[in-house]
Amino acid sequence: MTVSFPYRYQYTKIMPECSRVSLEHCMRYERRTLLKGSTLAGASVLGLPATVASRRAAADAENRVAGTVSYFGEPVEDAVVSLEGVDETTDEDGRYKVATDADEARLAVEAPGYAEWSREIDFADDEAVTVNASLGRAWGDETGELRVYATEPEGGSGIPCRITAYGDEVYQADAPEGGIPDSGSWDRGLRVSEGWWEVRITDAAGYDDGYDEVYVEAGETELAWAKLEEGDATIPATGRVFGRVVDEQTQPVENATVRIAGEQVPVDDDGTFDVDREHGQHAVEAEAPGYRPLRGGVLVRFGRETELIVPLESE
């Protein structure tokens, strides 16, 4: 639907049609677009608790927990990690360490712009446990202002383009002067929910597509600045979901059916699948003869690939 603003251009507000179901995931950048880089290790696991990656005997009497906090494979810095009243913050690599004398404890993670994450841990005597937390994003009820500009890397005049802003909703606008606001927009940007916003710049003649990501605080104004290089590289509006359906022994499941956002995706005999989907959170359903049906969700980001491992249990 089209939402009218007191500007001389219109914004198209795209409501995501998906369920908000948490899911651990990893990400690797799309090789053939601007959003490219090295592969990040890991795998998504649908419907399973956080992986206890390793255990080792501790030298003292405390039960210790260490690991990383990330979003889509990217470390989350300054997240607060709590364990039975003890709080620590993650470093720039998303790493943390906490300890407790309790035999059972709740590990919780909080960070601005992300949904709270928690896990119950049962310790053996003098045990050290590694738990990696993969966060999902969340947006607040209050709003702030998002301004967007597209220029050459050193700055200068705005470059005419199309702007798409992704958060709890999606906004699109043509920006003939290369930004929001412009000379006809009453010096106001987009009114958006508090939280993280990704901005994708397209249709800038003679320039690569652009990207920026900013956190908008309630009642504050934040600038997303896309620095465009000359070229014709593009950032697609969709992301790719690839993965496989496996059993309890991680062996491929034959004759599996997988639906993402209500649409069935082709699954090969070896349980693998590969499909493009729009940016956003999508419901996932999987089933196979002799196995219990499974429901969960997957987060898709434009220009990226998400690996999704779907584990089915025998009936």
From TrEMBL:
It holds the Pfam family CarboxypepD_reg. Keywords: Carboxypeptidase, Hydrolase, Protease. One of its GO terms (molecular function) is carboxypeptidase activity. The keyword Aminoacyl-tRNA synthetase does not apply. InterPro entries: CarboxyPept-like_regulatory (IPR008969), TAT_signal (IPR006311). This is Carboxypeptidase regulatory-like domain-containing protein.
